[in-house]
Q: What sequence folds into this?
């Protein structure tokens, strides 16, 4: 019953080390994938923003080129005669 550690690791410690290494690699891949998705989302948002701004500018140009609508006067309501 010696208190010293053996120079060779046990199979359980080898398996634990392997699991930790694989988990770290998978975590790194997951973080990279999440960052890639975030970049894609930001690119799509920028593309859609540009499209919306171009449409708004085209609409504003079209409204400016059309003649102003003629304002109509409100007609007075004719009072009803009481029905007898």
A:
């Amino acid at each position: 019953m010696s208190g010293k550690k053996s120079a060779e690791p046990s199979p359980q410690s080898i398996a634990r080390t392997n699991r930790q290494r694989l988990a770290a690699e998978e975590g790194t891949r997951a973080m990279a994938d999440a960052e890639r998705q975030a970049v894609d989302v930001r690119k799509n948002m920028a593309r859609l923003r540009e499209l919306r701004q171009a449409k708004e500018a085209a609409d504003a140009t079209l409204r400016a080129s059309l003649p102003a609508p003629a304002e109509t006067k409100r007609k007075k309501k004719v009072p009803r005669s009481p029905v007898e």
